[in-house]
Amino acid sequence: MAWGILLLAGLCEIVWAVALKYAGGFTRLLPSVGILAAMAASAGLLSLALKSLPVGTAYAVWTGIGVAGAAGLGIYLFDEPADVWRLSCIGLVLAGIVGLRLGS
Prior knowledge:
Layout: H1 2-23, H2 29-49, H3 55-78, H4 84-102
Helix pairs in contact: 1-2, 1-3, 3-4
């Protein structure tokens, strides 16, 4: 259950990171409200997951989900570069997440 909560926390992390692009420096109301809600949800869910997961592992997985998801959506939504080097690094982040999950 804690891993599922942590996954949801990571997905909320992706939402607020990507929404920052749409908020225009917090000048647009709806994306700005979405950012604050996603941040609160992300931190709250991480806190719940930490009740039964080690903090180092959970935090690394949480940030890794956010990094990989935001980078992937940056490529998909904003035409950011998708060269071999960048995709390889995202793959390494995902490999680290899997490794931490398997090691816990």
